[in-house]
Amino acid sequence: MPSFTSWLLRMFLTYIRRTRLVFGSAENMRNNMRELYLRPQSFNPPKNLDPGITIDRIDYGAWPLYRVSLAGNSAKKRPAMMYIHGGAFYREINPQHWKFVAQAVRDTGLDAIIPIYPLLPRPGATATEVIEGFMDICGRLEQPIVSIVGDSAGGMYTLATMQQLLQQHPELARRVRCIVLISPVLDLGLEHPEVVRRGQNDPWLGLDGLRQLLPLLGAGLPAHDPIVSPLYGDIETLPPVMLLSGTYDMLVADAQRLSAKFQGKGTEICTPGSFKNDRFTFIEQPEMVHVYPLLPHPEGAEARETIIRFLKQHTGLVSEDNYH
């Protein structure tokens, strides 16, 4: 049974914050995107993170870039995870993202690399260009990227970037020991009947607004192109994948389709329920909303611990000496 805190948060999303008013309307979505374009949000890390954490600004090209590490860890070649934040492709990184990253760094010992990537509708913000930027960071940083983690829009970029690394830069892809997808966007077409059905009752997301993203992100790509819909990309050579989603999130339907694909059932079938094998771990949490692992309730805390155990399992024995 869901905790009282998670129920209260769902009520807040539904009746007070009313985020769905933005995502549920094409016009409201366009207006909100325009407003944030004219008055950009801050991407600076909060000042009240764990005192044992150090954050350095290490800008890369035109992108701001941050390194988050344990205080005193200054080795330039330390293994790191890349965290790709969500925000519907047009909203900036927020304090919940930073708090999760700080916890992951503290509990895994990995550094974290945080790219502040271009957001829609700015120049350079198409999916192709942004994924190229992520791959370039993986190649140019002295620190090896041994895991990629992303939520929502960042989950799409995480899986698509991994697939493109495998195709274009296999030597970099071999360094990545695992990836984690938190409530990811997997099919930007958003047309599967189960997505449509669940979208009617999602307290956070809405179809009409989110469907405004494909023309901007894809810049002419078809909806099933793996760059914008990594559900249709190759999964055979991926490193171990963890995916977490809640059943009150309309995107859980596409998560179920990816789970079905890992089970050899294709991409049109939704296979509900958690699933695990040696390549894929799917955690489907009943009655949880979008990006629930980042939220301040018991189920979110449990999910964060699960992610950290997965990261430690697959990267805990990584030594800097492997990459010198």
E-strand count: 9
Q: Which series of helices and strands comes N to C?
A: HHHEEEHEHEHHEHHHEHEEH
> Might you state the CATH topology name?
Rossmann fold
Kindly estimate the percentage of residues that lie in beta strands according to DSSP.
5-15%
Keywords: Hydrolase
Organism: Aspergillus lucknowensis
InterPro entries: AB_hydrolase_3 (IPR013094), AB_hydrolase_fold (IPR029058), GDXG_lipolytic_enzyme (IPR050300)
GO molecular function: hydrolase activity
Overview of the molecule:
It holds the Pfam family Abhydrolase_3. Keywords: Hydrolase. This protein is α/β, with parallel strands linked by helices. The protein has one domain: Rossmann fold, CATH 3.40.50. Helix content is 39%, strand content 15%. A nine-stranded mixed sheet has the order 1-2-4-3-5-6-7-9-8, with helices on both faces. Helix 4 links the parallel strand 3 (80-84) and strand 4. Helix 4 (95-108) packs across helix 12.
List the defining traits of the structure above.
alpha/beta; nine-stranded mixed sheet; 12 helices; disordered C terminus
Chart the SSEs and their pairings.
Blueprint: H1 4-17, H2 20-23, H3 26-38, E1 53-57, E2 65-70, E3 80-84, H4 95-108, E4 111-115, H5 127-140, E5 145-151, H6 153-168, H7 170-173, E6 178-182, H8 193-199, H9 207-210, H10 213-218, E7 241-246, H11 252-262, E8 275-276, E9 280-285, H12 298-315
Parallel strand pairs: 3-4, 3-5, 5-6, 6-7, 7-9
Antiparallel strand pairs: 1-2, 2-4, 8-9
